[in-house]
Amino acid sequence: MVDDLVDPRRTEPSFELGEREMYEAWLDFHRMTLLLKCEGLADHERKARPIPTSKLSLHGLVRHMAEVERHWFRRVLLNDGTLTHIWDDPQNDDADLFPLDDARWEDDLATWEHECAASRAAALGRALDAVGTHREGPCTLRWIYAHMTEEYARHNGHADLIRELVDGRVGW
Fold it and tell me: What is the pTM of this model?
């Protein structure tokens, strides 16, 4: 097994990257961090919600980030209003997070990977000043990259705590 703090699939971006490359590298760093938090666990452990007052689980975070990827890069940047929520349930605004009883990890991981690839494709060839439309007004790709990095970093903090509570592992 790879050391808890080092994994060749995840490296911090160089200090000398250009702005675009830095945004892309940090976002990929945080995507990989979330994946690493989920690896090596049984299905019930990924679905575990060890904080009784929270709906968060590692599996749910991956589903949530698939929704977030879809929203910012395709609904907002590409102005694609035809995209629905992946886990749509009119009775449950948090259907991406909970319940997960019938959720299949392999399917949901593949969905998240697909949405990450679709996000990369949506951004490809667009300038950082490219503008999409959010309900509050114009939104640049630069803002989307910064926000997505923040969103992953925040949820990776949640994932740190969840993983530690599930099996005691820390790091990455």
Answer: 0.92
